[in-house]
Automatic annotation (TrEMBL):
Descriptive protein name: P-type conjugative transfer protein TrbJ
Stretches assigned to coiled coil: 42-69
Family matches, as NCBIfam families: PRK13874.1, TrbJ_Ti
Top-rank taxon: Bacteria
Keyword annotations of the record: Coiled coil, Signal
Extent of the signal sequence: 1-29
Length: 241
């Protein structure tokens, strides 16, 4: 039998291959970690979160601004106009009730011509002189009575104004917005203006009474001179013949 070396080699190789079985492992995917990409994603998420926080803060600021605007536009639930108006009306009523010579230009001119003429009428009788003197005295007394009534009313108003002033100051201090503070300030100014008007009216009444009294005294001096002249008579009576 003829020996063939190459054929024998193939046979041995085949046997070894058959005897030694090499298991083949299945293929698996390999996960690759990219630090640079991960850092970029984290940074993007952080920026997005910051933008959301900024938007939330902006909305909160807008809500706070609207709340403050509401407070600033809130009106003051207190008005002193009625009380101030009534006080001024009481003073005005007293001024209009002036007797004798009223606080009216036309009435004043007419009363002055009748009771306080610029030139004394020497043709008046004694009874007429006495009647006019009595009328002037009554006018002077009415002027002083009017002054005292106005002064009394002003004093009463001052007492009420003190309480109103305290209330307005309290309203001003507790104001929650600029509108309420402005309205309280305006009412304080109105109260101060009203008090100035009261002082002016009281001064007008006082000056009126003083003017009437001075005019009465001046007329009384004219009357006294005329009556003295009539009492003494003509100088010819005392002249010797």
């Amino acid at each position: 039998m003829k020996f063939r070396p190459f054929a024998a080699f193939l046979a041995v190789t085949s046997m070894i291959t058959t005897a030694v079985i090499v298991p083949v492992a299945p293929a698996h995917a390999i996960v690759v970690f990219d630090p640079s990409n991960y850092a970029q994603n984290v940074l993007t998420a952080a920026r997005t979160l910051q933008q959301i926080n900024n938007q939330i803060q902006a909305l909160q600021n807008q809500a706070s601004m609207l709340t403050n605007m509401t407070k600033h536009l809130q009106r003051l639930d207190f008005s002193s106009l009625t009380q101030i108006t009534r006080s001024m009306q009481r003073i005005g009523t007293l001024m209009n009730q002036a007797e004798g010579i009223a606080f009216d230009l036309a009435s004043t001119d007419e009363a002055l011509r009748q009771q306080f003429p610029a030139v004394f009428d020497t043709a008046l009788s004694t009874n007429e002189i006495v009647t006019q003197a009595r009328a002037r005295f009554q006018a002077s007394m009415q002027g002083y009575r009017q002054t005292m009534r106005v002064q009394a009313q002003v004093v009463e108003n001052i007492g009420a104004d003190a309480e109103l002033l305290g209330e307005l100051v309290t309203q001003s201090q507790s104001a929650t917005g600029s509108l309420q503070a402005a309205q309280a300030t305006n009412q304080l100014i109105a109260l101060s203006t009203k008090q100035q008007f009261q002082i002016q009216q009281m001064m007008a009444a006082q000056y009126r009474a003083d003017a009437l009294e001075r005019a009465r005294q001046q007329q009384a001096m004219e009357v006294a001179r005329e009556r003295t002249k009539r009492f003494i008579g003509s100088a010819r009576i005392y002249t010797r013949n």
